[in-house]
Design brief:
Layout lengths: L1 E2 L3 E6 L4 E8 L8 E3 L5 H6 L2 E6 L2 E13 L3 E8 L4 H11 L5 E16 L2 E17 L15 H23 L24 H17 L2
Parallel strand pairs: 4-9, 5-9
Antiparallel strand pairs: 1-8, 2-3, 2-8, 3-7, 5-6, 6-7, 8-9
Helix pairs in contact: 3-4
Amino acid sequence: MDYGLVCEIKELNDDGTFHGIASVIGEEDLGGDVIDKGAFKRTVAANPTVPILWQHMSAEVIGIGEVKEWQNKLVIDGRLDMDDPMAQKAHRKMKNKLVKGLSIGFQTIKSTWEDIEGRMVRHIQELKLWEVSVVTFPMQPSAQVTRVKNAEDSEARLSRLEKDFQALQAKLGTPAVAPPDSPPATDPPPVQDPVVDHSALGSVVAAMLSDVRSRH
């Protein structure tokens, strides 16, 4: 089995779901392989669901993921099996940025070789994808976890959103105060309703808050 370019875990959530880049099309890895455009087409069409392994060990299946091609990349939406101790270990190390990469395991179906100034580079035109692994050592120094999301971050964002909403309600519900040098009016003018539709605005923001809570 061949092992491809190690790429990035872009998002990781507390429930074990994550999004990442499993492979890059047209980019040479440190093993001298380039996966050409179209190489994933047949295998992804036949079976977009692949197992997620720990360090390419077939005995350590820690989750499952859906892969697809997007902007010359093979991206994965994965879910770790959080009932599995090894998946829990992987999640903890991913969250703490101790393990930062993704790598694909595949079987080469069609390939050609290119001589670049005496250095042989293999171009893979078709492959069969077997698995995506969470791995420790990236084949590229820049391949690493870029963002980790957790419940605390979500609660903080929700708290800020609620405070902003309350401040907006207070601002819209408070009548304007006349400048200190304005002459007193003999008869106070009738209070005019604000032009902004408060109920509609409140409904929209409340719905946003409810949607945010439902996701956590």
